[in-house]
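tool_log.txt
---
The assistant was asked to compare two proteins side by side. It first ran the structure predictor on the initial sequence, then on the second. Raw inputs and outputs are pasted verbatim so the downstream comparison step can read them without reformatting.
(1)
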Amino acid sequence: MKKYYVLHPAVFKLDGGAMFGIIPKPLWSKAIPADELNRIQLSLRVMLIQTPHRNILIDTGIGDYHGDKFDERFGIVGQKNPLVELLETKLQLKASDITDLIISHLHFDHVGGLGGETQHTALFPKATLHVHRDHYAYALKPTMRDAGSFHEQYFKPLIEEADKKGLVHWLEGKEGEILSDGEDKIYFKCSYGHTPHLVHAYDEKFIYMADLVPTAHHVPIPWVMGYDISPGQTTLDKSAFYEFIHAKNKTMIFEHDMESWGANLKPGKHGLEVDQKFKANDQKVIQVF
């Protein structure tokens, strides 16, 4: 029987205007108040799925290798090796117990926890990395607009080394199966507005929204991040994903919402909208299913 946990190892801050794109500040600031630098606080939430034979992580957070200047700029608050520390203290899991890492995309706040203090030392040495091949190619040659989100000098050596060891499973296409453990299977669908080939892992219970819908406040279709490489495509992606999520009765997992770890959808006056939100209450680990 599978167990599902959401983990909250650290927090960071991003510009509120960038997080909400064309939505005016008088509207988005009611949802998440900004600090004196116009930044809003966000979770670096990841997900752990335990099957009879696997410990599967989805994303790895921001890591701790950036340095004081970077940490101050992004308001990062977390312990040394925050994800490993949380796994050990709350779930009695060593880094070597992690069998699989599903990487939604290669932005620094999602893949920063891959390595240790030297940046090029894998923190999860036995884990198979599930990475979309076309997204990896894009991450090595992004546009000037989003190049700052990809720390190639950090993730490329780690992925190359894992690939040499046969520990990279390259995902292909718009959707498919990521892994299976007997009857337990995890699949993926891609979105394209935030970044090309953004992987959304899902099974019969959940779907990991990553940066397509980073918080519950981004559920309304026009509420799209300014960080997105193609905001118009994001609105199309969200609409298609919502139909899938509602039809299959899945719970959305929010990666960056401080208050809610997830939500379900229901029909509303203007299409599908949030039904029930599940509160995080600042807990470091929550078993969700």
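(2)
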Amino acid sequence: MTDILLPIAIMLAAAKLGGEFCERFLKQPAVLGEILVGVLIGKSALGWIDGQDHVLQSIAEMGAVLLLFEVGLESDLGELFRVGTKALWVAILGVILPLAMGYGLMIVTGHSSFESIFVGAALTATSVGITARVFADLGVLKSYSASIVLGAAVIDDVLGLIVLATVSGIAKTGSFSLMNALQVTGIALLFLVGAIVIGLRATPMLLRWAHAMQTRAAVSSAAVVIAFILAALAHLAGLAPIVGAFAAGLVLAQTEQRVEFEDQVRSIADIFSPVFFVMMGASISLSSFNSTTVAIAAIMFVVAVLSKTVAGLSLPAKGVSKWMIAIGMVPRGEVGLIFASIGLTNKLIGDNVYTAIVIVVLATTMITPPLLKVASKNEITAT
């Protein structure tokens, strides 16, 4: 047990110290500090944590599941429908452009088809959490432009998860087949729609039963149970467990018992999610920092920024801040890191590409707050 408890204690303490440093002194999201301290205490630096340890990886993956569950809880289906067409426009272009550009540029620079399509997939998702946090800090979270960005980011996550499921299916079969890709996409869509439709009917009753129980934390336990069951069912269906966790969050966000368990679920996620980010950093090999990695990261960064900016500026609508929407779509954040982790674990990408993806996630996250502050000035005046 010492081999498990001591590393977790080190990771949690390091995560909180790193996160505090970034938030207090650098005015950046805590996730940046959590990743960077992971690099510091990882095997290629201080050597306190083995980023390839299977037990610690399993615990970290639980953190990823809880993280996507929390993202789903913070998403509003009603708001998605309100800004639906505009958010869908930005989201679809925000998936197609980075996927196509990332794939094309990686192929041109001599990478394999698997690595190229996975890089494109990893660049599709926009960070809901980071963007929402910046909007809240700027006082424009309830603005129309912000609603479009957050709606598009959620749709991006859903589409990105479908792309991830498709890419994972290709990895299992060893080759691309249009029929297999359509089959995986169909399963992913069917699972998401089925989980939401059935869940909206079943979960209120389950939570009412839990509410009637006298045992402590029955409602929050029931919510986590539902999330884990849907995550497990997603895995059995050949999808990533985070797909099921995200669907569970979307469903439970609509229940009247949400106020009873949301803070408790967030507290659980606050324990496990930092472990995931620290393990992401600990998995980085410092030996992979070379000219090749820097070149790959530079290519990805251009694709990441340009593709989302074009998607936002192309929105055919008036009365919105297109630059605010474009910049708000740039940060990759949590889902991009989860993509990278899955790719490395399943040997779809090498150390250089993995490190480059993490660098791009960090870079896009760091540039967004100052740029968004400038872009949102007109929105602040309008609201």
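---
observation on (2): Residues 261 and 267 are 10 Å apart (CA to CA). The mean pLDDT is 83.
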